[in-house]
Amino acid sequence: MTTLTRKISALILSASLALPVTAPIAAADPARGPETLTQARYGGADSLACLTEALYFEARGEGRAGQQAVAEVILNRVDSRAFPGSVCGVIYQRGQFSYKKGRRMSNAKAAARARQIATEALSGAPRDLTDGATYFHTTAVRPSWSRRFTRTTKIGSHIFYRNGRRVASN
Q1: Regarding the domain with residue range 23-126, which homologous superfamily does it belong to in the CATH classification?
Q2: Looking at residues 74-99, what average pLDDT do you find?
């Protein structure tokens, strides 16, 4: 073990001992190196792959804010007791998203952008675009469930909602 490796290990150990027990522990994203962190409570590399795939297929035609908003909805669901407690669990929950798992991401530039946004979201980027939304749909449809929720915002071609009674028509 080199001196540098020992110093890094000691630093990591002392930093982890200083964290409160309730703090989320961060894990390195192996594909991008140890300097890129994703919050372990969201599942690390598996969550990154699932979230990247969801952003690519659900919102690749959106601008950056539109993709960030979709990522917010997914992470808001993970944090809610009403949905599965993991990113992949939320994304693959039956009947929730329109794409099929395992499809090939054929546009490398769009896939790289989705991965970057997913990495930022999992690393703790602020969630201030959707006002706590846990549902969304495109403007091309008007699902019956949308009348049961409070509309929070429209970004690009997606409309976002949170649980709660709708008090006015938007």
Answers
A1: Cell wall hydrolase SleB, domain 1 (1.10.10.2520)
A2: 91
